[in-house]
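Bit of a strange request maybe. I'm writing a small parser for structure token strings and I need a real example to test against, not something I typed by hand. Could someone generate the tokens for this chain?
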Amino acid sequence: MPKGCLLEDSLLLKNIDFNKAFLKDIVKVADSCDWEICGAATSSKLYFFKNSSPSPKETFFIKSSDYFEIYKDIEFLFHSHCLGGAAPSPCDIDISHESGLKSLIYSVPEKNFSFYDPKHEKLIYFCI
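Reply from user aminoacidic:
Good idea to test on real output. This should exercise your parser:
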């Protein structure tokens, strides 16, 4: 599990150029769906992918073929939690570690984000 969040951990957020428009787009799409949305962000574009999970309200699954061509440019993967908080599940943490990619989760009910960095095993919550 991720380590606790300290004030200096907020510096991790400075290492990611969160395009505020990207965050607003994620919120807009997630708030209009009753399933977990998912995608990836590069420095210049937001990619939304089909959630291929058999239980899309509870989990998400992205086919690797959806992001294969942009993998090297991905700054972070994202998905929403439409039924719960922004805390990553053990599966979310595993996906982040296996892919080596940072993870952003938006909670529809709580209207906040979590950001997980697998390299530093740090978890940060924030709102826009």
